Amino acid sequence: MERRGLIARGASCASMAKMKVIEIAGGGLAGLSLGIALRERGVPVTVREASSYPRHRVCGEFINGVTEDTLKNLGIADIFHDALRHHSTRWWMGSKQILEAQLTRPALGMSRWEMDERLRIRFEDIGGRLITKDRVQPELREGLVWAAGRRLEKKSQLLGLKAHFEGVDLNGFLEMHIGVGAYVGLTPITPDGSKVNVCGLFKKGPRAKGVNPIVDVLRHCGLDTLSNRLEGARMDPVSLTGISGFQLGGQRVLDHFCSLGDSERMIPPFTGNGMSMAFESAECALPHLLNYCEGVETWGKVIEEVRDSLDKKFQKRVRLALQLHRCLTHEVGRRVLSSAAVAGVLPFGWLHRKLS
Predict the structure, then answer these.
(1) Could you tell me if 174 and 88 are in contact, meaning their C-beta atoms sit under 8 angstroms apart?
(2) 31, 37 contact by CB (below 8 A)
(3) What phi and psi values does residue 319 have, to the nearest 5 degrees?
């Protein structure tokens, strides 16, 4: 996978002039990491982002699964030099702890506010062109990579909420809380554990009220113990973010588009694998886009090969995650999972490897 034939800092002007241009719609993790990897290989790249930086995003703020090799191949490994390393997790079913386990490999922890900003700076420092507050309309043309996020599904009943809290002691663990039709993850995002990310997936219900809507939503889905913990903590109101109108799994990819990250498929968030998949999808697309830029492959061939590569990488992983998601959000499934975890027969290590 490693290709460093033309590096942005050392490529000759004549060589760079021959390279075809890539435009990326979406400046999230997939878009920026791909842009950095292409720039380091001498490709002219423009990233167009509908929002601006820095920003809060709805995510668990830990990366479960990405390897050092992938980060190095994308040219961003050093960005995570001071990331937290999470090793352990605890799971609750309502008010009952059902599992304590070691992760099969550490998860990287960093706030999206910081991560996006570091990637933005790196991309611009190596000559990438970044245009913010510019929402790209989908149109069929060569060289356009679509990484503009999930497809809008107006009928979806899913709701994602995220906020930062101070005064919540996790003792260094990643926490997972499973309620009625919902699950919530808690992640330390500072080295001393003083600040915690709380991010959950819920089914839409009564409108949350008050200054701390996450607490209200938690009570609605039966997570009273967690709600009481958070009620005694301080929420940063600026960090409160929500999303709706999305579906998990395949995103009904636009025909003849080269789509990456959440634009292509979304894994259920309990896995903590969504950000890893963004980086992995950029790595999957990288060699094929380089072939296009160097005139080796047609754009149509690139689209086919990128889709095949993404299917091989993610299809089984996302299918398993969707099955577990249905289990976590169904009454019978929750009882089965809880019984297996308490009895010590839940194959957590195997699941962690398969889902990351």
Answers:
(1) yes
(2) no
(3) -60, -45
CA distance 56 to 59: 9
- The H or E element that residue 188 is part of is strand 182-188
Taking each helix axis from N to C terminus, what angle separates 299-328 and 274-293, rounded to the nearest 10 degrees? Answer: 170
Token pair in block for residue 171: 């003792």
What does the pLDDT read at residue 90?
Answer: 97
Task: Tell me the mean pLDDT in the region 273-298.
Answer: 97
Distance, CA of 205 to CA of 262 (rounded, Å):
25
**Beta strands across the sheet bearing 158-166:** 62-63, 96-109, 84-93, 174-179, 182-188, 195-203, 158-166, 234-244
Tell me the pTM.
0.92
> Which letter does DSSP use for residue 24 in this model?
E
DSSP 93-154: ETTEEEEEEEEEEEEEE--HHHHHHHHHHHHHHTT-EEE-S--PPP---TTEEE---PPP-T
pLDDT band, residue 19 (cuts 50/70/90): confident
